[in-house]
Amino acid sequence: WLFPINFVPVYQVFAFRIVFQKAMERASPDENLKVRVLNLIDSITFSVFQYTTRGLFECDKLTYTAQVTFQILLMSKEINAVELDFLLRYPAQTRVTSPVEFLSNYSWGGIKALSSMEEFRNLDRDIEGSAKRWKKFVESECPEKEKFPQEWKNKSALQRLCIMRAIRPDRMTYAVRDFVEEKLGSKYVVGRSLDFATSFEESGPATPMFFILSPGVDPLKDVEKQGKKLGYTFNNRNFHNVSLGQGQEVVAEQALDLAAKEGHWVILQNIHLVAKWLSSLEKKLEQHSEGSHQDFRVFISAEPAPSPDSHIIPQGILENSIKITNEPPTGMHANLHKALDNFTQDTLEMCTRENEFKSILFALCYFHAVVAERRKFGPQGWNRSYPFNTGDLTISVNVLYNYLEASSKVPYDDLRYLFGEIMYGGHITDDWDRRLCKTYLEEFIKPEMLEGELFLAPGFPLPGSMDYNGYHQYIDDTLPPESPYLYGLHPNAEIGFLTQTSEKLFRIVLEMQPRDSSMGEGGVVTREETVKALLDEMLEKLIDEFNIAELMTKVEERTPYVVVAFQECERMNILTSEIKRSLKELDLGLKGELTMTSDMENLQNALFLDMVPESWIKKAYPSTASLGMWFADLLTRIKELETWTGDFSLPSAVWLAGFFNPQSFLTAIMQSTARKNEWPLDKMTLQCDVTKKNREDFASPPREGAYVHGLFMEGARWDAQAGIITDARLKELTPAMPVIFIKAIPADKQDIRSVYPCPVYKTRQRGPTYVWTFNLKTRENPSKWVLAGVALLLQI
């Protein structure tokens, strides 16, 4: 399986030739031709793999590794294309109910889909029949390392991956890594990055080194260190450092001319800041790539483009460079040390109020590490991503010093305000994220911290007065192992984050598959056949649009609820007519009766990849579902609307997630009550009481307000018996809520004691999908649920 050239990004083809030649030189010689060819293939494959991965960010490396592995195995016919298609696409059956409590309905949908394939026949029966053994396997900590129950342990590595995808999606990044190691060898999954000196050996006058920047990392330290070793320093005047973005383009060009002639080194920092000059730089580098001094070297740094369409670095520069990524360390342990590294023993001694200063400084370091690293938990961590940086921390410590020197008492409120609303809060644009930031500071910086009673995390008390090295030692000795608990989150947050990472991995690899037809032999139908079958099925299932004029004749009074129903019907008509229009157009295109346009090709591609097409998303509601699940959900929404508009009487329990605009229905509850009682609308609020019942238990709507169902809680669960929020159960990521009774009351009558103001979002993406705030009863301090990122979701 020779490493095919199409696994290499297009801008690297020129460099690929050089890597290819060097790999051939490096391959072990052998007199046996077969062995020699195998050695060549192994050396070339690994060299190109290594060359490409060092220019990728950590989050993309496994995607690339998986793609390489699957393509090599497909070419050598070691894996079945149908099974790979299942792994990447995961066409789970919808509307199935899991018969076993240790698997979700979504997991069971995958098992049912697998069981319809010959190689997996009776998998569903075996899981039901040997539930105890499967439960133990599914609930083990690292199931990818365990043997599968029964004869399923004898299945191929890819078949085991397919089953694992259904039963433990959160472990798939680990399982794929193990699969790569089994098939290609451990050198493909070892996490150590190449040291700079090794990469430097491949550079030359025509091959610059290109550093892709990450926040908080200075790759140029490596260049300076290597330069010092080889006699290139600023003092020796053979090492030139030009920081671009402040009109330094002429200086940079002069430095390049001099260096090419004399054999010096040149660093060009932040070239992304001088977009217009980049074509001149490309020409200058090309000019000096031949005939320059053999010791001439160029080192370039730039930030990655925020999106594919905003790339500005010329292809020629990328093509000829060795690309290297440097990323900051991850995890609480590394980040806490890194935060403390911004200070010295002198910093600790500079304040006359030494004890207070040291305690608050350490708490600030922990706070800084938490807010920076919490990003990895996605929307449950922060609604939006913020560029917190070391400057926020060092300025906060300066402010702390000034305030302590100027005050006789520690001004806790002032300090928290300055840190939370200005220094760090200055980055924050979302109100719920602002609340989170404020809550962390209220928990970490308060008078109890000087009495030795403050825990920054479970098992990690705030240390007493120590010297600088003592604090570093304290972190090593006392900080518990990495876990969501260190951030105030429930362990489920990690399961959710790992599951979403796995979903993203497979979606990207699926999108990277060859587009010519199918994924190869093995009975996979062609791309066109797959799309045509799906298109026909959708057109058949979509009903006629709602006849608004006819519906209006049924209505005696246009109540707020009736207005909402009409608005929803209108929105649904716009969406379904776009779906029908685009599908019929594509159908004609596939038959050859219409010329295929780029829009039609995009639609075909989305249908094939099981993604909701862009033109539908624009007219629909936020959703994170795959196309199959999205379409099933759409049909359910239509059915709910049909039932409601049958006689326009309010359903006994309303499916809040079924609305394009749930806010309009919640507002209608307030409008109805306001009209009935002649209360001013702006002086009203919603009160929500969580019942102990499910949807089926209600036969009629309440006299005032509405019963709503279909909500889920993330970050915690609802204890129906006690009527309060409580800790989530492990692996129950989004437990369903009972029916909630929502009614409107005067704002001054609401009871806000012992409640957690819980945000309601349409999807797990949170952020812009915010709907409302429901006050939920809690016996514990609401700050616990703020840090845990507890929210109600309308879709999961």
Automatic annotation (TrEMBL):
UniProt domain Dynein heavy chain C-terminal: residue ranges: 499-794
* Ranges where the Dynein heavy chain region D6 P-loop domain occurs: 205-325
**What residue ranges are annotated as transmembrane?**
none
In which domain of life is the source organism classified? Eukaryota
Q: Where is the Dynein heavy chain AAA lid domain?
A: 357-493
Any single GO BP term: microtubule-based movement
Write the protein's name: Dynein axonemal heavy chain 9
Give one GO term, molecular function aspect: dynein intermediate chain binding
Gene Ontology CC annotation, any one = dynein complex
Which Pfam families is this protein grouped with?
AAA_lid_11 (PF18198), Dynein_C (PF18199), Dynein_heavy (PF03028)
